[in-house]
């Protein structure tokens, strides 16, 4: 069944002339004639008889495919149908190209002749027919200019569509790009999830992925990329792959999704940061000068003030950089990393103990 499907696909898409390949001069040859033509042609190109021809094996295989398709009534009808469509399209293209070429030549000739005659005369010296001809030439030039501008616009749109991998959602377009004080930029809070469009995952949409990844924290927005054919490591053929960009409201939530997402959902192809992995460092810009450390309130800005202007003496003040995470987010991410390291150490110890028992 698999071989028939392969032959059916070849019959629908083949560009090679199987009749010419077998040396047949008519498309309604009987089966016996097709078999005889195949035997003669296959003897000539057989790899054993052509050891110096690197393409001999390929030619021999193509002859077998041509024979099998032309001997099967269903496959032959399919092949003849698509072959006739291609021949008709080629003829139409040639006729259309000829008409376009002639129209273009005629237009250029008329423009050349018309302008060479009309430019010598002033408008008041022209007759009605000449004025109409001049208007026609002007309109033709204007139309040519508009067509060129339209084609350039379509070409720019095509290039932009090819360059753009994602279709941005309306909420993504209306959100402000600059991060608020004490918050990280959206790209730093964005996780990229990729999965194959096969099995149950073929029907996955934004709602499904959102329900899966909401466990790690509040999601600000999601963008579903266009499905693309990608070559997956370990796979022979390209596979249809979906990509989702998840923007969390907090960096530590995005960190949890990036760390645990692939473990919690093994069927996913990958879970990574959309940009580089953010560094986990202190968000404090000022230097502490007091022994006690107050609890930092995220998303609020403090200015250093150790005396006067309402400041409380002995209480350290600091400010959040607009592109650094809050103290709470840094603490949660450090706890997450510590937990991960503890689990990894535990697993290594168990493996070492098992090896020692053996």
Folded structure, characterized:
The chain is of the alpha+beta class. Among the domains are: 2-87, DnaJ domain (Helix Hairpins, Orthogonal Bundle); 128-164; 170-273, 2-Layer Sandwich (Alpha-Beta Plaits). Helices cover 53% and strands 8% of the residues. The protein has ten helices and five strands. Strands 1, 2, 3, 4 and 5 form a five-stranded antiparallel β-sheet that branches. Helix 1 packs parallel to helix 5 and helix 3 (31-45) runs antiparallel to helix 4 (56-71). The chain is flat and about 85 Å long.
Fold blueprint:
Blueprint: H1 2-13, H2 18-22, H3 31-45, H4 56-71, H5 73-118, H6 128-163, H7 170-174, E1 190-196, H8 206-213, E2 219-224, E3 228-230, E4 239-248, H9 251-264, E5 270-273, H10 327-357
Antiparallel strand pairs: 1-4, 1-5, 2-4, 3-4
Helix pairs in contact: 1-5, 3-4, 5-6, 9-10
């Amino acid at each position: 069944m698999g071989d028939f499907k392969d032959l059916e696909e070849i019959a629908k898409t083949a560009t090679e002339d199987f009749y010419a390949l077998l040396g047949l001069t008519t498309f309604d040859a009987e089966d016996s004639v097709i078999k005889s033509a195949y035997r003669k042609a296959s003897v000539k190109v057989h790899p054993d008889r052509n050891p110096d021809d690197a393409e001999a094996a390929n030619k021999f295989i193509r002859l077998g495919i041509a024979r099998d398709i032309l001997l099967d009534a269903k496959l032959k009808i399919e092949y003849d149908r698509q072959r006739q469509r291609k021949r008709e399209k080629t003829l139409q293209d040639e006729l259309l190209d000829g008409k376009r070429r002639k129209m273009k030549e005629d237009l250029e000739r008329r423009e050349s002749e018309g302008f060479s005659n009309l430019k010598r005369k002033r408008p008041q010296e022209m007759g009605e027919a000449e004025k109409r001809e001049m208007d026609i030439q002007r309109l033709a030039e204007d139309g040519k200019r508009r067509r060129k501008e339209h084609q350039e616009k379509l070409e720019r749109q095509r290039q932009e569509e090819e360059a753009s991998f994602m279709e941005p959602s309306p909420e993504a377009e209306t959100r402000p790009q600059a991060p608020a004080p004490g918050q990280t930029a959206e790209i730093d809070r964005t996780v990229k999830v990729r999965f194959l469009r096969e099995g149950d995952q073929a029907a996955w949409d934004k709602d499904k992925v959102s329900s899966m990844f909401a466990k790690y924290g509040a999601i600000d927005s999601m963008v579903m990329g266009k499905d693309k054919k990608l070559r997956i490591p370990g796979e022979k053929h390209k596979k249809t792959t979906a990509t989702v960009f998840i923007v969390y409201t907090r960096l530590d939530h995005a960190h949890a999704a990036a760390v645990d997402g692939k473990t919690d959902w093994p069927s996913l192809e990958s879970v990574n940061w959309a940009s580089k992995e953010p560094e986990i460092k202190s968000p404090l810009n000022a230097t502490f000068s007091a022994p006690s450390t107050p609890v930092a309130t995220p998303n609020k800005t403090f200015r250093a003030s150790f005396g006067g202007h309402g400041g409380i003496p002995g209480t350290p003040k600091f400010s959040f950089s607009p592109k650094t995470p809050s103290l709470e987010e840094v603490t949660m991410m450090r706890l997450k990393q510590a937990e991960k390291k503890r689990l990894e150490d535990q697993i290594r110890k168990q493996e070492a103990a098992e090896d020692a028992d053996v």
